[in-house]
């Protein structure tokens, strides 16, 4: 099984999880880069607005998911919606027939609803696992058993 871990991360949380998953699966890893500047207070507000209105953006990434069997995709949530760089990625790449898994680190438990939306955005893929975690747990607690359970599902 060939695995690709793809992630977007503005402040590093989802990057840390992506790196951990990629290391445990010996998978390739790729970062989705949003060409729109998302740093700073004003851009924070714009990011929320863009996300809420379902906007797309311009992104960069290096690896072609077509070259892999399983694509594990992670990102935060902005304004209770899939973030523009993730929305754009899912529109640009062809995941038809691929095994997919999603992970989300967000401030609240909003990831629970987000997984439903992400599954709807990838109707031609086989969803194999989801892993969601609240930021405070990510920062303060040991979540390795839950991450391991996610990885086991991906491996099956
Ligand atoms: C513009 C903006 C809007 C956000 N809106 C939400 C939200 O609606 N729900 C939530 O749980 N977290 C929200 N967050 C928090 C992020 O999802 C959270 O901080 C996440 O861990 C950041 O991941 P990262 O470090 O990989 O960028 C928002 C963050 C930003 C920047």
Give a verbal description of the structure:
This protein has helices spanning 13-25, 41-52, 84-92, 111-121, 135-140, 144-155; strands spanning 3-7, 28-31, 33-34, 59-60, 70-74, 77-78, 81-82, 99-106, 126-134. The chain is globular, with a radius of gyration of 14 Å. By secondary structure, the protein is an alpha/beta fold. It contains six helices and nine strands. The termini are close together. The strands form three sheets. It has a five-stranded parallel beta sheet, with helices on both faces. It has one domain (3-155): Flavodoxin domain (Rossmann fold). The chain binds flavin mononucleotide. Flavin mononucleotide (FMN) is lined by residues 9-15, 44, 47-48, 76-80, 105-108, 110, 135.
- Please give the share of residues in helix: 40-55%
Shape category: globular
CATH homologous superfamily heading:
Flavodoxin domain
Total E-strand runs? 9
- Sheet with the most strands, sense and barrel status: 5 strands, parallel
Poorly predicted ranges (pLDDT <50, ≥5 residues)? none
- Structural class category: alpha/beta
Q: What is the domain tally?
A: 1
Mean pLDDT: 97
Annotated CATH topology: Rossmann fold
Small molecules bound in the structure, each named once = flavin mononucleotide
Spatial gap, N to C terminus? 10 Å
Q: According to CATH, what is the class?
A: Alpha Beta
Secondary structure tally, helices: 6
Q: Any idea what the CATH architecture is?
A: 3-Layer(aba) Sandwich
Strand adjacency order, main sheet: 2-1-5-8-9
């Amino acid at each position: 099984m060939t695995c690709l871990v793809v992630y977007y991360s503005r402040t590093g949380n989802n990057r840390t999880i992506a790196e951990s998953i990629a290391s445990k699966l010996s998978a390739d890893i790729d970062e989705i880069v949003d060409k729109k500047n998302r740093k700073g207070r004003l851009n924070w507000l714009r990011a929320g607005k863009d996300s809420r209105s379902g906007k797309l953006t311009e992104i960069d990434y290096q690896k072609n998911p077509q070259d892999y069997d399983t694509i594990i995709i992670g990102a935060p949530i902005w304004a209770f919606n899939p973030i523009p760089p993730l929305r754009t990625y899912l529109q640009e790449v062809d995941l038809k027939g691929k095994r997919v898994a999603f992970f989300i680190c967000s401030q609240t438990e909003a990831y629970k609803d987000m997984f439903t939306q992400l599954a709807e955005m990838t109707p031609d893929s086989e969803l194999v696992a989801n892993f969601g975690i609240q930021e405070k747990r990510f920062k303060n607690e040991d979540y390795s058993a839950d991450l391991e359970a996610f990885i086991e599902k991906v491996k099956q």
